[in-house]
Amino acid sequence: MSSIQEKRKLVEAKLQTMIRTIVKPKEPNGKAEPKKEEEEKFESDYKQKENPEIIPSSFGKRPIYSKVDINCDKWLMTLDEESRLKIDNPPSLADGLSKELEEEIRYLGCELIQQGAILLKLPQTAAATGQILFQRYYYQKSFVRYHFEHAVQACLLLASKIEEEPRRPREVYNVFHRLERLHRLQQSGIEINKETTHGMKPPVIDVNYINTKQHMINSERRILATLGFVVHVKHPHRLIVAYGYSLGITNSRPDILQKSWNYMNDGLRTDIFMRYKPETIACACIFLAARTVEDPLALPSSPFHWFEAFDASDRDVEAIALQLVNLYARRRFPNWPCIKAELETLRNAKNAEKAAEKAKEIAEKLEKMAPELEYSNGIESKKESPINEREKKSGADRSKDRRRKRSNERDGKGDRRDRDRDRGDREDRRKDDKRDKRKRSRSRSRDRKDKNRNRDVGKKYHRGSNSPPRYRR
Amino acid sequence: MSDVDIKQTLLNYQKIMDQSSYPYINDVSAYEKLSKIGQGTFGEVFKARCKSTGRMVALKKILMENEKEGFPITALREVKMLEQLKHQNITDLIEVCSAKGSSSNTKDRTTFYLVFAFCEHDLAGLLSNQKVRMQLVHVKTMMKHLITGLNKLHRSRILHRDMKAANVLISKEGVLKLADFGLARPFVQRENSAAPRPLYTNRVVTLWYRPPELLLGDRQYGTKIDVWGAGCIMAEMWTRQPIMQGDTEQRQLQLISGLCGSICPQVWPNCVNMPLWGAMIAEPNTALPQRKPRVLRDRMNKIIKYDPSDAKLPASFQHGPDEEAMCLLEHLLSIDPDKRPTADEAEDDIWFFKEPFPRENVGDLMETIPNSQFEYTVGKGAHAGRGRHHNNQPRPHQQQRQQSNAIPAGQYRDTIF
User: Fold this and answer.
1) Cβ-nearest to B95 among A63, A158, A220
2) How far is CA A419 from the centre of its chain?
3) Residue-level pLDDT at A442
């Protein structure tokens, strides 16, 4: 306890000096008031905190009785080890998605939400909410398992409701449809202007619409369930203005505020909102804007950095600033069809894996159920052998396979051969299963056809490009 | 917290995360449903017990079958607002639970439940039970709680929009709680009237508790609509039944005129600007009879019948509401919304600072009531006929109520709320 008391005193002393140093260089009129308020506010905050210990993030904590925890702080993933692990290993990676591609999809999804919000005439806060929801959701769920296209639309729908500007699913669908076509135009190198987009009409109501809408609504519900209704986001927009005011740059340097505002909107495409408090992000944006604006402004930095008064550490602020700067190093726009194809192959692989596992289970069951029958029948036991081999291979080896496959994909050529072989394997396995089970429902076989068709789509795509598809421009 | 502790808690989290499919949402199977305690267009309400702690809760099911526009915005608002509103006099949202659809056709459909702390009674059920004897101090305490809760709401910039006795719950401890935020919404408060105020939907508040400005089609209403409801509830504390039970909107307006005096520009200068004023005043059999006196005070004194021979009644109650109470009631039921006090002003009303002083709670009153008194189970009021054991004649109001509640559910008809 004594150490805490000491720390408390230290912090207090630090703050006193901070406030004094900031007050002095500013013009005295109009400046004195907010400072005073802030001082008071801080003091009251300080008094309120009976327990000054650092409480670890309540990430993943179950709501306890009478202490309801439905606030957004639950979503900060920095303090405890586990959430750091989670943020470094998004669930999509387990399904074989590469880290770069995962980031690419995240970027694309956020970009689509941002553009969709503009087309839907939603306020920027709704766009921000939608993007943050999207990011949160895909730290819980895998891109392979859940289509990001549906999630993007669901996020737009949900964000519009959260920010009290409700939009219909139909409107979201129209906008998304248009974005998809615009994107295709852009990819094929055609400049987007009034002439090229002239022929674009809203999509007609068809089966596709009904299916998409159903997916959208299901996805919306899944997002709510996954996030446990923690859908309310604290936006740093207002904080930036408030901090700017207390720094005295509201009137003298509106360009800095505008620029930091822009930084923050662009920062939505990264994961900073998962990692840091909105207060810290606001500080980082102002920090970066004051340096990168045309006529840089030196904000108070001695004896302490100004942002320490707002409870932000220089380490965090610099980390955010770096991440934001890196964002602008990105040259290309994510290639949507490529991503789609890539996800499709992964999805198929996963489905096949699942089917194989199921087949294996059934085979095992059969084996248990009728051992006599199997042993007495010579043909049966012969067929058993390839499955057993695969079983041995299935665990660790398969993941190794996948890794190898991924590395091969980068080389391009080896990839197809490998996959062909894999596919051959899989087909063999299917045949085996068929013989094992003796009969197979019609729906199953239809499934298989579908899968084959899907795979063909992927193949066609690969055939069209010489370089690995991911980075085609 | 030492390092070991932190590690331990983290390990625990890990376990929890591994166990559940939705790490942030509990399954509703943690609760054991006991009985149904309410039903409406909003969904069903169940009484349930938590299996691990044994605590009683109320489960409110969010209906989604008829939602064409995805998750209902009203439910989103309810969750969002209740999580901000932690107050003694506002119902306590414990968590949101999910239940996976079991049947094959609704495989992917998750149903959500809002879990509230359970309250034993609601005010409508309590008032309809003649055995419940309330003294002035009880009325005063309950009104104090009601207005404190309302003030908290309005300070948080939320309109309740469905004030009525059935939505006022009373816990076993005798603490009154505002409930049912199915129609509530946040509002924008603008001091400078230069910017146009947003339009809200007009079809809110149960008809019997609907203020004159809503009946006249106002869409730019404010917190005062809830204050009118509070006034109706206050009067109901003595009359034991809703004071104005109109079956149509016109009838409701006539009832208001009959009780609170006619609605005219002398009383309410702004009334001529109401959207429906012109059409209504021109009608031959107008719903706005002019030159009606305000008889609220007389009527209150008349309605409240006491048996003076009943020695059990304490002296303070035999005279009915006292002068200050009448004063507050008159204020709350002003025709002109601008003349109604805000919840903040009402909280500081002189009545609450006169003998008998409002108490902490009405626990002593609750102790005299053995069973839960719910409007739904008692079988009176708006839910009459839907209750389990009573076949009372459904009041004409019932149909209207369904209507008035059905419209906000299909709110996408007008996009501006």
Assistant:
1) A63
2) 29
3) 46
